[in-house]
Specification:
CATH topology of the largest domain in chain B: Chorismate lyase
Number of strands of chain A: 11
Radius of gyration of chain B: 23 Å
Largest interface: A-B, 65 and 61 residues
Radius of gyration of chain A: 23 Å
Distance between the termini of chain B: 16 Å
Largest sheet of chain B: 7 strands, antiparallel
Number of strands of chain B: 11
Strand content of chain A: 25-35%
Number of domains of chain B: 2
Oligomer: heterodimer
Distance between the termini of chain A: 43 Å
Number of helices of chain A: 8
CATH class of the largest domain in chain B: Alpha Beta
Helix content of chain A: 25-40%
């Protein structure tokens, strides 16, 4: 099957972008210039540009023209680090992991909400619909770029048992350790569930994603378990796929994986 | 900021789709019917439908109208398996899928010998002068294409005697077990790298994805290492994000076998909404 003309043009432009002939932030030739260059009709040129937009390679800035998208230097998050850490830490683990790769992390102080549980949060935490939970929400930046949104949920029972820091709007350096010291609840493992979906409007606004939903987000549900196999926390994290990658290590592998 | 009219209509229709009031495969009201129902202009109704289309909720069939997209029941692949297993081998895959009461099928491997390039040289720690064997398989669940998998092995393994790597029949006991028996090679661990990208033309046509790149794919690269820390296999698997999910288990986790989520509704969207709504508010 021969490629349609617009695809040949799009492929050619894609190659120029990938080889760097058209650099990030560069303006694409105008529609008229492209028509001249490829001897193509207006609609064909438009379809080619539309195809590139759909692939996140170029973007149109109203009144200015079409530009090569500037790629964000991706960050690789390891999902299989030591059992004692996980995403439970609100600042320490994250900050040191990012800093170790010579990048600058920022985490906002948590916004704490107490709410009635339903849906997935209830089933992951093994709670009845309507019981009370604490949600601790943070925004995370790397090199001043919004990088992820994270909310950890804990049963309100933990607060009643004495873990009162959970409802204070200050960072708890290591929640997992805090729960162990305070309540003798020990996290012995966790499970991540990874899905990808289009961002909702709030996520698109926070991460400055195009409004058309073309850049998808990872949604990772991490459930932590104690020694009896009871869920003790659920952390929901949202990561745009244009700047995030993940690594999973099983067994012995040489330590060259992450820079 | 008040929501624009088209978003209110789109949200209303989305809610009807998510609640099942508009079922997968059913036809959406016509443009005219929408205009009457919402008392909205033609452009507003069109914008609303466009918004639903980019979110993969509805699709237009030329000459027939707009339909609710039929969701494929997702399959969850567990990335953390036993170290000594090669999680992606034919046999293990088939058993795992069957254990969740679904019907797996894999095609016979297509075997190729090629020069190493790009990511293959990097991951297998070889040069572009070296040859690699690639074994490529297509995988289906319940008759639906679910993943494409290609494993690359250094040609040196064949030269050392693992000749079945270049034969087309499936290595039924799994390649890791075969390499262990044949060469005494033992898998000490593996590393997965997970990224998401737009599908290429071949992937889009195999998985029957829309040509506009709106359904993205997971690309999972798994590098396996022997006891000396040498990489001996790279497996690149492609999974469309509209039908695949992954799980990672660390430490001790109760053995909730994963088919149980069939009776779990899917209020994920709602959950995420509240999560990030919160997020932007506190900015």
């Amino acid at each position: 099957m021969p490629e349609p003309m617009y695809r040949l043009i799009a492929d050619d432009l894609q190659r120029k972008i990938e080889t760097g002939q058209l650099g990030p932030g560069d303006q694409l030739p105008t529609e008229i210039e492209l028509r001249d260059e490829y001897q193509a009709s207006r609609n064909t040129v438009r379809d080619a540009v539309k195809w590139l937009i759909g692939r996140g390679l170029v973007e149109t800035r109203p009144g200015q023209g079409t530009f090569v998208v500037e790629k964000i230097d991706p960050f690789v998050t390891s999902l299989s680090t030591g059992v004692e850490s996980g995403f439970g830490g609100e600042s320490a683990a994250y900050a040191s992991e990012v800093a170790a790769r010579r990048r600058v992390p920022t985490v906002t102080p948590p916004r704490v909400e107490i709410q009635q549980v339903d849906g997935v949060i209830a089933s992951e935490l093994g709670l009845e619909q309507g019981s009370a939970i604490v949600g601790r929400h943070q925004q995370r930046y790397i090199d001043d770029t919004p990088w992820s949104l994270q909310t950890s949920f804990y049963p309100m029972r933990f607060v009643e048992l004495g873990a009162t820091q959970l409802i204070q709007a200050q960072n708890i350096v290591d929640v997992v350790r805090y729960l162990e010291e305070r309540l003798s609840i020990k996290q012995v493992g966790w499970r991540d569930k990874i899905t990808v979906r289009p961002p909702n409007q709030n996520e698109a606004a926070f991460f400055k994603l195009p409004e058309d939903g073309r850049v998808a987000v990872f949604e990772i549900l991490e459930t932590g378990f104690d020694e009896r196999g009871q869920p003790i926390r659920l952390t929901v994290s949202i990561y745009p796929t244009d700047r995030n990658q993940f690594a999973v290590v099983v067994g012995e592998v040489p330590d060259d994986g992450l820079p | 900021m008040p929501e624009p009219m088209y978003r209110l209509i789109a949200e209303d229709v989305r809610q009807k789709i998510e609640s099942g009031q508009l079922a997968g495969g059913s036809r959406l009201p016509t443009e005219l019917e929408f205009r009457e129902q919402y008392d909205a202009s033609r452009n507003t109704v069109r914008d609303a439908i466009k918004w639903l289309m980019t979110r993969g909720l509805v699709e237009t069939r030329p000459g027939q109208g707009t339909f609710v997209v039929e969701k494929i029941e997702p399959y969850i692949t567990v990335l953390t398996g036993e170290v000594y297993e090669s999680a992606s081998q034919g046999d293990i895959y088939i058993k795992e899928v069957q254990a969740r009461c679904r019907k797996p099928k894999t095609t016979a491997p297509r075997v190729e010998i090629q020069q190493a390039e790009g990511v293959i040289t990097e991951e297998l720690q070889i040069t572009s002068d070296d040859s690699v064997v690639s074994r490529h398989q297509q995988r289906y669940i319940d008759g639906i294409p679910f993943s494409l998998e290609t494993s690359f092995y250094p040609m040196s393994l064949v030269e050392r005697g693992a000749v079945r790597l270049i034969q087309a029949p499936d290595i039924e006991e799994g390649t890791v077990a075969y390499l262990g028996k044949k060469l005494g090679l033992s898998q000490a661990g593996y590393r997965d790298k997970i990224t998401v990208r737009v599908p290429d033309a071949n992937e889009a046509s195999f998985f029957k994805l829309p040509d506009d790149g709106r359904v993205v794919v997971f690309e999972v690269r798994r590098t396996a290492f022997d006891e000396q820390g040498n990489a001996f296999r790279l497996t690149i698997s492609i999974y469309p994000a509209d039908r695949n999910e992954f799980a990672v288990n660390v430490g001790s986790v109760p053995n909730e076998l994963l088919p149980a989520d069939s009776d779990e509704p899917a209020p994920l969207q709602g959950l995420a909404d509240s999560t990030s709504e919160a997020g932007t508010r506190s900015l």
